[in-house]
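Q: Fold this one first, please.
A: Sequence and structure below.
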Amino acid sequence: MAKWTFSDAPVGMDQGPNNSTAEHFKSQDIFSALVRESIQNSLDVQLDKDKPVVVQYAFGSIDEVLGADIREIEEHVKAISADYPESSNYQRMAQFLNEHEDNEITYLRVSDYNTRGMDYEKDSKKCGFYSFVQSIGNSSKDSAGAGGSYGFGKAAYYEFSNSHSVLVSSRTPDGSTTFQGSAMLCTHKIGDKKYHWSGFFDDGNGEPIQNELHIPEKFRRHEPGSDIYLLHVNNAQEEMKNYEENIVRSVLLNFWLAIFRNKLEVLFDWQDDGQAEVRISCDTLDELMQKFFPNLSDYSDPFLGYCNPRPYYEAVKTAEPFDKNSETEQKCVCFKNDQLKHVGKVMFYLMRNEDTKDRYVRMRQRYMVIDAPSIRGQRGLSGVLVCEEGIANDTLRKAEPPAHDAWDIKRVEGFKNQPETDEGKAYKAIKALERYVRECIRDYFASNSAREVEIAELDNFLYATESFDAKNGNTRSTNGTISEGTTQDENGALTTKANGPAMVNKNPIPETLGTVTIITDDPKGEEPGGSTAPLVPPNTPTTPRPTPPQPGTNPIFPPVEPVIPGGDGPHIPQRKFMPVSFKILAKFEEDGLVYTAKIKTKEDIENAVIIISTQGEEGEEIIDLAWSQVGKIFQSSIRGVSLRSGVTNEVKFRFEDNIKHCISLVAYVTE
């Protein structure tokens, strides 16, 4: 009969109670970490490419006879809690085990079907079973587009268990079976004996059980695939509802495209009786999306991240091929490039979604959401970028952390001059994809809809952009001279005063005209919020923005809408665009090219956010700021700026590229 075996701790450093491997997943809640890791592992070993991979989450229990040997792991956990009273994690685990010591061992089973299972060969470090059960930091995945690559992802399974232990049973298409349990604890003592931090549940020799007749019948696989039992999981009725909602929500968040394209089905079984209470498939996806994410707007804050998949799902579902010559409105389009340089085949979906923050999600071939960067601008866009196939699918893994939740160019930046390496290729791929997204957005908005109109008395409140003398670095103003007297406000913004005596004109003042380029209602050229866009008169009425729905109250899963804590109740922040007039000066100073934005406003604005964008021959280009003398910079925005009415506010800033640009800006506050 199988039993738990921990070897004597070897001479050397001990492993403490803080699990460094699990730290890779601290950016995700426990449900997202488990869902992302388990499903991507299954997608990586798909058997029949013409059928979807099926992943099942089932809750059950192990009877007392079979559980007696498995329960030995509890002694080790309790010993650790006694050795490390300061470890809140092990104290919690030990408390759960004490409270349930008279009950059957409960588990969450994660199973997959239409997969190849995990092969095993003794002394081979390339087989799947060894990588998953018997090692840390080792990955056997070498297929193009595989989801994982570090071998740390298994920590997500152990963290879900109150004994940090799992049982794994797998079967390959040729009928080979393998079974073994594994625990990831820390170095500990029972009595006077010191034990290693990891242990195995097997015949006692450290090798998995491969004779099917020796595998307990409950854990035998009868078709290709794997069963992973996460032991000692709380299955109280209230917890079950919590699990269901959070697991389903995490699946929809991270794998909606794989489900939409019929590459994946996910089942949820409460009693492990083969009756799925929830089935997420291409047939049920639309209904579940509307149930869990009824709002089409994504108000995700850059710091909270991507929280609502619905608008991106709708972008893919309703997209039509982009046609730059279309005579009708194309609200939702798809751009396709079969051979993008440094990338391969890529598709970019783009949808006009006016009442949302501009953002696009990024995926590789397995159709798991990697991340969701902001699109810098205020157009109201939701996008989806998919690397369908090609070199980027493999090399981009080098730019991802172990949690595979970002394409972090800093991880590969040191290899940008080594294009022959995978890291160098990943760097080029990220740069190529960023350019491609900018080009698609530019093409989407490119049209002949921009026209010039004359607006009476426009010169009363609009400034012209300053011309720049490249030879001597001087600026020439067309709107008067700057006062020598300046005052320093508390927020650091400079204000100027009118200079010279007041002039009184007794003759009637003629109507003055100004010219400004505005956007018409043409579908391809229209930009939402035109009444509050840059270079619009301050007295133009601001169109009210719709109030987003209240956030969910689930304390574990991040809310769909960001919540600002404090006050009498939750408050949904909304962006209110502030009509301001401005002009831009540029001058070379000691540390580079410095821009000065001279801003006038009809009313005092506290805690404003100023978005800076540049305009070039090929359309808008977003460039990160390197410095601002007021507020705090975040990418292309300056936050926490106070603007005073009745004066000219100066905001100085510098771009990272230190190159002259034509500038536009928009200001808003968060209410």
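Q: Good. Now the second chain.
A: Here it is, same layout.
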Amino acid sequence: MKVGIDLGTTYSTVARYDRKTSRTEIINNLFEKELTPSVICFLENGEILIGEDAKDMQAGGAGTIAASFKRGMGDNSFTVEANGKVYTAEELSAMLLKKLISDAEAKTGEKIDSVVITVPAYFNDFQRTATIRAGEACGVKVLKIINEPTAAAISYGYSKESDKTVLVYDLGGGTFDVTMVRINKGNIQVMGTDGNHILGGKDWDAAIVKFVCEQFVEEFGVDPREDEPTKNELIVASENYKKVLTKTDSVTIQIKYEGYSGKYTLTRNQFDMRTQFLLNATKDVCMKLLDDIGKTWDDIDEILLVGGSTRMPQVPKFLNMISGKPVIDHADTDLAVAKGAAITSELYCSTSTGVREKQVTDVTAHSLGVLAESPGGDRYINEVMIKRNSKVPSSVRKAFKIAPGNMTDIIEVYTLQGESKIPLDCYVLARVIISGFYNSGDGATIDIEYNYDENGVVKVSAFQDGERLEVYSESVPDDIAWMGDKPESRSTGAPIAKNVVLCIDLSRSMRNSLDEVRNVVRDFALSVADENTKLGLIGFGDKVGIIRDMTSDPNTIVSALDGLKVNVYGRGTDASPFGTAATMLSNRPGGKMIVILTDGIWGKRDFAVSEALNCKNSNIAVVGVGIGEADVAFLKQLSTVEEGAMYTTLDRLGETFSTIARALNSGSMGMRESAEGSARLGSAEVRARLR
């Protein structure tokens, strides 16, 4: 039996295509429910619970809980430790998939041998290949992985004979994707896609947790979030409170902690106001997609809602307001992705089902490039080979010339995924070694071919005179900071000096978050500390103050953090710290970065953006980290590097700063000269390292 599996952040679903009725059907789990919680619980006695049982344990604060691990797919630094064993997101996903498959087999009495698994459209190569490996670890054949919005569009448009352009707005529990598709007589043509893989319904839940805990702290002076089991109970309960607010105008929330009991009312209007910034973040993604593919709202006939989080009344209201288009809500909001995957699984069956008569074309969400030298040879750049939103499968072949006199028989190619010209602002996917070519020393030409297969997974091939060459992959070195240097400087081995100024919003709005902020920034300072790294600390509000000047002693920063207080620099956020931070960084050798941490709305925005641009022109990277009610669009204006605008929740602030620390330690995050121009592939230099 072939099935489609929606492997979700919060819930997962299994569906199959019934050839007799030509309809898709959901295979309920053993609890007779269509949706299975994507939760795993490790009990102290060694027992492992998955799904409904694990969700119950999470609500009760028992055991070690693994949830939302889909967000960590492809990232080996994301781990969960339980009973002396460490699990990656890929291993956790394999455990969940195995449970889904075994339950479906028990329910139907049939053996599942093949699956189609869905992924967020914005998943990169690491995340896609990790998903495939997780499926294969269950002993089944992974026929295909398919983008979630595409699967939803297939489910929605498969039986329709209409001709329309649809924007699929997919807001799940942990990820957000937006995809424009053309539906014509049941055929699906994806025109473009974009997304944010760390934005989803969990962030709306976190807003509820923040609201009630702030009330509790104000009333009793203690924070329930400081206790892990209590926090887990609140997270689970907040999802239910959110669902209540989809049907009623208010919800009453009771918290008991350390002998205190608080009861608070959250109205739908309050909830909508507190989460407006999250809706604005989805709007930013929509507008970016439309701009990238040269379309406007006028080119869309209707908006299709997908994902359980779109049931919040604020979502269709918001979309209708910004687009003026009909917003389509349907019974399969939670199930459309799994049903589309089930239909896709039939593409691999005989033509007697009739499914093959329908055509589905998808696109890639990320550009694919090669590490190259700029025309003048003074810097490395990402030379894009396949542009984002190209149809998949897709391939591009370009020539690499070996200069006369160079007797090399090995070529090293670095594969990059991302839109920035600056290599270290992209994902460095792989180091590929090409050998077996003929080189007499008189000059030779090697054709390098980049491919996106139908799963959006990257493959690299090489040819000489039409003959395929040997290609194999080696691990990417831990230290890739040299990609930010001039090409001739790579062999020096000299460490790169790094200078970072941390600018912390100390306005009144930070009062309930300051303790966690202090702990996270302390851990960050200690994690990046070495003799080549200097840190400075600034506080700002209505004024700006230098708390600690540049120092290579992290303990000096830690000591300063212990003394942080809100309102010292005013209650609001009218001042911009960029000018002061730039002065601290001036005349210092090496890379320079400013990290802004804020939780509110700034006053003089235009001035702050202007100062941030001045920093960029001075080769100072700016990374904006927002929590609370921070404006994501404004953070993007401030940030000077791709993916440099990081909105997160207070609970995940540590993860965000860990990402920045890893990037710093590898020489990433834009701490280098900006790269312009492009390499002359086919006629000059590709950075395919000769050795």
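Q: Anything worth noting on the second one?
A: The two ends are 50 Å apart (CA to CA).
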